[in-house]
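Run log // design_07
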């Protein structure tokens, strides 16, 4: 029997949710609900220095306002609880212990400036310089010799050519060691980085599809390495283009206030935003107001535009007005 179709909405409470988040959440929800699948909500709050205590409830309120529902989550409970990452740390540390025993991680004492100084120029589309392997000769047990030196656990990438078929972006290929390099997977105390936490959680929660922004395609290759190591079946992936400003840069504060909470507090009807988002994705020919459920019957990921959506001030004012 195949696993039940399950998707997830995973807000990070490092600030307010904005229009770009809403577009991705809507598509993730539609992709699963249109095929009769289950949706769960997981709060990804392991980035502790940046987490805002008020942002968790605000994110849940935003999702409700958008007309998106879910079957499991921090407010509903469910068979895969807890649904807050900081309450799941024991599972991440157990996974890290497996990686240590297999010598797939090593303690790295390099600072960001060390990496930047030793690495070549960043590859196009990457998050920064590729790690040059300054600490790669270490073994996991060498951590005992570091005494009080600060370090992080870095994952040792294979030299494989990895491929996956993305439901939106098509066939993707990456020579992971050469193009991505070893990456930080946990802090010295075992606190996980994003890559480890989401793999452990998606596997434990039975997630069969992950839909997210296409800026995270490099992360998918890192995560596929982890799935292979643990012997777990990876979900299907669907990466959608981002929302950008008129300058072509990823949507940010410099492009104006696109917080969902601001719209809610102003009494804006969510159907106005859903209509605009549906048009932006290629799901509707115009921005006529619509509910999320109105888009289910004829939803198809094949309709999704493959170019970033340029949000103009006029469009945004149209929603708020």
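design_07 sequence
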């Amino acid at each position: 029997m195949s696993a039940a179709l399950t998707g997830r909405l995973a807000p990070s409470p490092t600030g307010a949710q904005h229009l770009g988040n809403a577009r991705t959440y809507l598509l993730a929800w539609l992709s699963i609900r249109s095929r009769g699948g289950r949706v769960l909500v997981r709060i990804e709050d392991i980035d502790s220095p940046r987490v805002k205590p008020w942002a968790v409830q605000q994110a849940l309120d935003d999702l409700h306002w958008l007309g998106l529902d879910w079957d499991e989550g921090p407010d509903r409970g469910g068979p895969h609880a807890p649904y807050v990452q900081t309450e799941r740390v024991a599972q991440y540390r157990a996974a890290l212990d497996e990686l240590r025993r297999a010598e797939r991680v090593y303690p790295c004492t390099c600072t960001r400036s060390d990496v930047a100084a030793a690495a070549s120029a960043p590859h196009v589309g990457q998050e920064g310089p590729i790690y040059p392997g300054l600490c790669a000769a270490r073994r996991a047990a060498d951590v005992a010799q570091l005494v009080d030196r600060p370090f992080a656990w870095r994952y040792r990438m294979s030299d494989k050519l990895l491929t996956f078929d993305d439901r939106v972006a098509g066939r993707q290929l990456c020579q992971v060691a050469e193009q991505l390099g070893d990456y930080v997977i946990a802090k010295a105390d075992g606190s996980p980085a994003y890559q480890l936490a989401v793999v452990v959680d998606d596997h434990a929660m039975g997630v069969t599809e992950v839909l997210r922004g296409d800026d995270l395609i490099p992360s998918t290759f890192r995560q596929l390495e982890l799935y292979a190591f643990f012997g777990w079946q990876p979900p299907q992936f669907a990466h959608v283009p981002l929302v950008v400003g008129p300058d072509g840069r990823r949507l940010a504060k410099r492009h104006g206030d696109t917080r969902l909470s601001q719209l809610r507090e102003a009494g804006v009807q969510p159907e106005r935003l859903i209509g605009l988002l549906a048009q932006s994705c290629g799901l509707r020919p115009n921005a006529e107001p619509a509910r999320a459920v109105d888009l289910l019957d004829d939803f198809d990921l094949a309709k999704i535009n493959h170019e970033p959506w340029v949000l103009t001030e006029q469009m945004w004012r149209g929603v708020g007005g």
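Confidence is low (pLDDT under 50) at residues 120-124.
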